[in-house]
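Exam prep: given the inputs below (a chain plus 2-OXO-4-methylpentanoic acid), describe the expected output before reading on.
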Amino acid sequence: MKEHDMQITLSTTKKEKPQADQLEFGKHFTDHMFIMDYTQGQGWHDPRIVPYQPLSLEPSAMIFHYGQSVFEGLKAYSTPEDEVILFRPEKNFQRLNSSNGRLCIPDVDVDFALKALKTLISVDKEWIPQEEGTSLYIRPFIIATEPYLGVSPSHKYQFIIIMSPVGSYYKEGIHPVKIAVESAFTRAVNGGTGEAKTGGNYASSLKAQEVSEKMGYAQVLWLDGVEKKYIEEVGSMNVFFKINGEIITPALNGSILSGITRNSIIELLKHWNLPVTERRISMEEVHEAHKSGLLEEAFGTGTAAVISPIGEFLWNGEEMVVQSGETGELSKKLYDTLTGIQRGKIADELNWTTKV
Ligand code: COI
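Solution:
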């Protein structure tokens, strides 16, 4: 698929843009979207940018029945020099293809997807909010569109990119949350779809989230599905602990999502010569560290929130407060550095940003 194949149909009307203080995560959408179709035998075809609009799909389209879909999330930022930059976008399209592999969806061309995204951003450039803590959240996704009720990989797909101006995930920017360690429900097991970014993983997490919210906790901490001992993720994020100086994140094991923020933090910590380890870590170990005063910090990481400090864990009925419920020094430094690089305010020593 070549760039010149792309058709652009501009919207004849322009939607009103929300004020920066009205931006909620994922509520407002820009004027345009990208779509490309896949038909078996023909491959990906008809890439186009069109006005943001509803989709027309048959009720029998396979996405509605068996959930064959994948998605990504990344952000575009406006720099103080009024340039537009993306943070490691090729990683998102590479991961989209890994998820595609798991869901039997055909790969997309990473270079073409990136070019298409840059064209879409250029068309809707005026939608990128400027204020501190804001960005343009980008949601690429692929759905199975073949009208068929048999359980098999679809022969037709649509690859779509929509974009949403967003404020910070939490109003305060970086704000400690209370977490309940999950015991009844499981997010994923090795051999399942846990390491793919597919809607079903998020649908299956909703019940645990609902139960924990009723108990006054913002998110759940997911343990492994077999022994219910080892820590996997927190809410829809990866998780890190600082114990007695060592920074630990669960090693990727097939059921944990390979987060781009997770990977960037590991690389940043190594760049700072701080001890970071990817390994198995049990809730028992975190509890012991807390008891002996060695649990210094805990935080979730993801594109949406960047860093989300954990102020308290509820485990087996015991409330374990971390950092007196305040944001730790490392969490703050990582948040400031990552968002600084993402917004073009801090030198990009690791070469992570790409200009649009
Ligand atoms: C992220 O942290 O970016 C996520 O994956 C959450 C998203 C599903 C809203």
